[in-house]
TrEMBL record:
This is tRNA(Ile)-lysidine synthase. It comes from Actinobacillus porcinus. It catalyses: cytidine(34) in tRNA(Ile2) + L-lysine + ATP = lysidine(34) in tRNA(Ile2) + AMP + diphosphate + H(+). Ligates lysine onto the cytidine present at position 34 of the AUA codon-specific tRNA(Ile) that contains the anticodon CAU, in an ATP-dependent manner. Cytidine is converted to lysidine, thus changing the amino acid specificity of the tRNA from methionine to isoleucine. ATP binds at S21, G22, G23, L24, D25, S26.
Length: 429
């Protein structure tokens, strides 16, 4: 079967957003879609080019992509991105690229990439280098979800040689990225030095790797199927927590598999055996009265009341103190939203908005100065007939995790705590 006929047989959607770098692979992909539209006029196509700014030729590449898209009559979106290099240029560029695509994508569009057979082999070897299990060794699948977007890789079983033959037959030019020769990048090192002798020795090596990747994927799907009911009982969709009651009774293999399912559900990179062992020992099996945590790159896994939470790495807001005036919108620090005070004939209402959530507290009228702070270590009284209680006990009673307690805005009248907005009013002040 011809490459074009193979490609057409895989098109099960109508709206596609095509990742177009201007290189050989994505030029083949774009041309295949343009030809498919001639026989399937219902296809709705857009292309997107990401300008990373890493090459001095980036502007020329952009102009080339614009010219090719005009030639093929496919609308082109262009995005310039900044790269966070903390996790390396390759990973930073990948994350910036998919973020830009996510912002440009329409709700009904499937994102299409030009990954091919040799790309699959490189991805498999990179996973092998990281010490990945069957999940990582599954490499890439033709249809999957990534960064909460549907991803389609119709060329995954096609060799680069076939793509080059097709593009030459269509008389289309393509870009050669000079960085592809730089073996400091891991993928280039594999492509240029490691894999060529293997392919020379074993002609069907890439196909064998593809078969192995597919077998790993099938095994992972079976494992997920067998653990689905157990995971559903432990995972809370509302707060994205993971229940760990009686977790120590499971085998290490089952523990690791469930933890990986949780991290994958949250869109986090999979942890290897050693990090999982540390997470289990230092967090899950830590003493009952401990406040354990495991730090990832920019997030932290924490435990509270037999649940695991994945939370952002938090900044200290204990020094914050600001006056709150009626009608004013007060911006809170460290992405904690805003706070507003409303007055009625009988009382005051404090409204805290953070993300999509709103919290309210009703307060008595006062002539005292009203301030907002974070963190308090005294006692509180939850109703008029209640006893004064240590605020730590109150937070425990309300089920508020330790790290959240110092991030809830507290309203003071003078030096007296009156309310933790949305959680309690202090009748003892």
């Amino acid at each position: 079967m011809s490459l074009f006929n193979e490609f057409q047989s895989k098109l099960n959607h109508q709206h596609y957003l095509i990742a177009f770098s201007g290189g050989l692979d994505s030029t083949a992909l774009l041309s295949l879609f343009a030809k498919s539209r001639e026989t399937q006029p219902h296809l709705q196509l857009r292309a997107i080019h990401i300008h990373h700014g890493l090459s001095p030729n980036a502007d020329q590449w952009l102009a080339h992509c614009q010219q090719i898209c005009r030639q093929l009559n496919i609308p082109l979106i262009t995005k310039k991105v900044s790269i966070n290099k903390k996790r390396g240029i390759e990973q930073g560029a990948r994350e910036a690229r998919y973020q830009a695509i996510s912002e440009a994508r329409l709700p009904n569009e499937v994102v299409v990439t030009a990954h091919h057979l040799q790309d699959q082999t490189e991805t498999f070897f990179l996973a092998l280098k990281r010490g990945s299990g069957v999940k990582g060794l599954s490499a890439m699948q033709m249809e999957t979800e990534l960064f909460s977007m549907p991803i389609f890789r119709p060329l995954l079983h096609c060799s680069k040689t076939r793509l080059e033959s097709f593009v030459r037959g269509e008389k289309l030019a393509w870009i050669e990225d000079e960085s592809n020769a730089d073996n400091r990048y891991e993928r280039n090192f594999l492509r240029n030095q490691v894999l060529p002798p293997l392919r020379e020795r074993w002609a069907f090596f890439d196909h064998a790797v593809q078969t192995t990747a597919q077998l790993c994927y099938n095994q992972q799907q079976l494992l997920n199927e067998l653990l689905a009911d157990e995971f559903a009982q432990r995972y809370n969709e509302n707060d994205r927590t993971f229940e760990i009651s009686h977790f120590a009774q499971y085998s290490a293999n089952k523990q690791n598999a469930l933890l990986r399912m949780w991290l994958e559900k949250l869109g986090e990179p999979l942890l290897g055996e050693q990090p999982l062992a540390v997470l289990l020992k230092d967090v899950i099996l830590a003493k009952v009265d401990a406040n354990p945590q495991y730090v990832l790159l920019d997030k932290t896994i924490r435990r509270y009341q037999n649940k695991l939470y994945l939370v952002p790495t938090l900044s200290d807001v204990s020094d914050f103190c600001a006056e709150l005036r009626i009608g004013q919108i007060l911006l809170l620090p460290d992405y904690l939203g805003d706070l507003q005070l409303f007055k009625t004939a009988e009382n005051l209402t404090a409204l805290w908005r953070v993300g999509t959530h709103e919290f309210k507290s009703t307060l008595p009228l006062t002539a005292e100065k009203i301030t907002v702070r974070f963190g308090y270590s005294g006692t509180v009284k939850l109703h008029a007939q209640d006893l004064n209680r240590d605020i730590k006990k109150v937070w425990q009673k309300l089920g508020v995790p330790v790290w959240q307690r110092t991030r809830i805005p507290l309203i003071f009248y003078g030096d007296k705590l009156k309310s933790a907005v949305g959680f309690f009013e202090n009748f003892g002040a």
